[in-house]
Amino acid sequence: MRSLIGFPCLGDMLVGTLDSASGATGLLIVSSGNEIRSGPHRSMSQLAHRIAAAGYPVFRFDRRGVGDSAGTNRGFLESAADIAAAAGIFRREAKLRRVVAFGNGDGATALALFHAQARIDALLLANPLVVGPPPPPEEKDAAEPGRGWMRQMIGRVAVRRPGMHRSLGSELAAAFTEAEVPMTVLLATRDKIASDFAEFLHKPAYAAAGTRVRRKQFDTASHVFAGTADKAWLYERVIEALAEQRAP
C-alpha cells in the first residue's frame, strides 16, 4: 500500500511517500538535485514499488522547498535535518529496526556527509558528486584604494568568480574514513560524474577513504540508470544491500 505522510522539519512541513511492506528493514530514498521524490521519469517511484513488493518498506520524500514540501530550498549541503527527519518518521511509521539509504548524485553525497545524524545503518551511494555549488560571493570595494568618499557613496559590491565550485573532496574523505556503517558506491562507468568520483578515490590524498567503500560498476552512460538493463542491475544491488541488513 502506498500512502502520503506529512512530517515536520525545522518548522516546515515536509511530504513523503511510504510504500508499506512487512519487513523490519526499509529503504530510504534521497532525491538528487531539485528532483521531486518520484525521481526522473518516475524511476524512484517504480523502484519503490518493486522493492516493497519484495517485502521491504520504502520511503521517499521532498526536502524543504522542493515538490510538495514547504520551506526554502537551500540545496543538498543544507539537507542534514531533512534526511534525519525523514529517517525518523520512516522508522516510526514502518516500525523499522534498520534503515538502508540510497541516493544518486548529490543525494548520495548528502547521505555520505549526513548519515550519522539520521542513524542510517547502511548506505548505497550512486554516482556521488564531488563538487558543491559555488562559494559565497566575495565582497570587494567598488572603488579604487584611497577613494574613501566613493566607497561611502557606492558601498561594497559582491563579486563571484566565474566557474568556481566548492570541492567536497576533504569532507567526503573524512566521511568515508570515519563511517561506522557499510557503504557501497554504485558507478555508471561512462557517466561523467561517476568518472570524477572514481578519479577522486584514486588521488593519493584520499587513498585511505577509497579503501573504506565497496565499489560496484555497471557499463552505462546513464547517470540515473534509466535503461531497462540499468534498472534491473540497480534493483539487484538494492535488494542485496537490504538483504545484508535484514532485521528479524
TrEMBL record:
Pfam family, one: Hydrolase_4
Domain Serine aminopeptidase S33: 44-161
InterPro entries: AB_hydrolase_fold (IPR029058), Hydrolase_4 (IPR022742)
Name of the protein this chain belongs to: Pimeloyl-ACP methyl ester carboxylesterase
